[in-house]
Amino acid sequence: MSDFTSDFWSVYVAGLTIASIVACGILLYVMGRMRVAKGKSPDTTGHVWDEDLAEYNNPLPRWWMWLFYITIAFGVLYLALYPGLGKVPGLLGWTSAEAYAKERTSFDKEVAPLYARYSGMDVPAIAKDPAARAIGERLFLNNCAQCHGSDAGGSKGYPSLRDADWLYGGEPAAINASITNGRNGVMPALGVSLGQPGVDNVVNYVRSLSGLPVDSLKAQLGKPVFMTNCAACHGADGKGNPALGAPNLADGTWLYGGSVAAITETVTKGRGDATAVVTRMPAHKDLLDPARIQILTAYVWGLSNRAK
Amino acid sequence: MTDVIAKRTLETIPIVPATEDVALYEIRKKIYPRAVHGAFARWRWAAIFATQIVYYGLPWLTWNGRQAVLFDLGARKFYIGGLVFWPQDVIYLAVLLILAALALFLFTTIAGRLWCGYACPQTVYTEIFLWIERKIEGDRLARIRLDAAPFSLEKLVIKGLKHSAWLAVALWTGYTFVGYFSPIREVGIRAITWQLGAWEAFWMVFYAVATWGNAGFMREQVCKYMCPYARFQSVMFDKDTLVITYDEKRGEPRGGRRKGSDPRAQGLGDCVDCNICVQVCPTGIDIRNGLQYECIGCAACIDGCDQVMDKMGYPKGLIRYTTQNALAKGYDTKTMWRRVLRFRTVIYSAVLLAVASAGAVSLATRNPLKVDILRDRGALAREASPGVIENVYRVQIMNTDETARRFSIRAEGFPGLEVVGVEQPVDLGPAQSRLLPVRLRAPAPDNVASLAKAEPHPIEFVVQALDDDKVVRHEKSTFIVPRQ
After folding, report:
1. Contacts A158 to B, Cβ<8 Å
2. B24 to A150: CB separation less than 8 angstroms, yes or no
3. Pseudo-torsion of CA B178, B181, B185, B191, nearest 10°?
4. ipTM score
């Protein structure tokens, strides 16, 4: 864990520390035994500032000197017990990583009963519980809101979690799986294989599925193109496939926008990329424990189901 | 120990160190202050009662079913009577500290270390502990004798009794201290049933030990070596500052004499050299050496000397509150007091009054509603349906006082802007705070000319209490329309 390749700096720091402590001790001992010749009183240090500000040299109380010795003893003891002297680990073997882990464990233990209450409940029941909803909202704001928005309404490329439209299914189990393992939907780029007129036509056809204004001739020409190239994932009726995360193209919801330009871009360049982090729903199993994921699931599920 | 002093003062009022010890670290000589009665002792006891009745009594008062004065660190709410302070109100703490500092400046300029002599906890608890010590061990001579006596059962019993009494006072002080931060009645029950929290127990014991150590053992050393105020107060003295002074002209040459004999005939001043002024001094100095940095201005020497003067049939006031100017120029009392009203005291008073009234006005007209707006930064804007733009905000509403309120949230900035996704009105309990994710929706740009531009538009959130027109906040934010 050393930041350096050789022991030089460790030895340097330890040597400097020990030398300083010893020097302080010697200075203190010498000053403690020193006697100043009796004489001029009041005795000043001879320093004068601002023309007439003088400084007295009055003796410190003796207990003050003992405080200095105690400080030295404390320093020596501290350096013996804790890591402080260069790379020396200290007799207690204390590390900050271990201290963090310990605190983490004790915190988890402290909040465990909070989550235990919900362990036997099913998601609809948890979603009805106001306390669980408050926990869920906090978890959501900390872990999900960056992409899906504080109100869970999503934005371009990040689905809204408030509506009834689900890419991978809206049942509790599916939501739980999305949070736990993440999701990675990829739409391949079809611009080259379809050619410009093909893309134009299929865009018009796709828009016609949800009743948007289209060039009906182009839409007609686009239908066979859709059946050959798109239906495998989005289905013959364009209603999508939750197993693949292929969106429903027949509802009014558009993940990347429903304008001609936006759909043309989607078809031409594709969406998502197996290697791109930003367009992927990350797995949370390493970040949140199952109990928290369950409450989060209930919160997200409740956003579109609780009202009914 | 080094300390900076103004030589201007040094030249006219000789400041003499208390010791001629030649080691760099001196061994403390224990001080046995003698009991003293008189006008100033009564003032001092009045100040002790005034401050301690407030300190010990305040946590026991209740207000609307809760402790009247409670600093709830865990919940970050600070209750003082009907007022609830939140961490955001830290400005009032600053005002309080400024007032305290200005008051210290003013009173020090008028009459020296008044704070030190009459009101400082160090002085107050030392006085209380000294009183206990006197009741159990006796006055000065008895205490000196007891300390010098060899170890015996009687000495052990007396000392044990004294420390038990001291510790009882100290523990009650610690208990009271904790009672300001944790409801005092519950703390009391937990203390009796041995169920105190670790921090409660720690602070109770810490504060008790500090009281016991500072008032029982450290005493004047706190003022001499540790207190920063003691050092900078002398900077605020001037030649018209009332300080406790021995009238050298009248007193010297000092010396013993028979009662009733004429001192002038013997070539003596009024000082009978009885040393009472030294014996009563809690810091162990001789006021006749002039103004010294150890002097805390408690006026015990005035009371002591006045008693002796009375007995001798001399006029009181050989040691008295007087000013350097009065001594040097022979002002009468009236002139001396009139000179209290001078440039600095007027300025200090004016500033003190101004800050106090500004603080009071601000406190009285304080808005109990606080609102913070935080824009979502992950996504600046979104298209909810073709042409309809939404921005998301986190709105933190803080209902800071103890009235439950209902609030409405609306947004202003351009026509058609509406708040959606919030159940209105928003209910907030007493001293409660809520974070609400709030969506603002703007109609499609075609309908609103001002929205056509893809840019941030300045808007304002208006949070309004339904039952009180005055409880309202306008918070600025922006609404972003993205490029298509």
Report:
1. 379
2. no
3. -40
4. 0.76
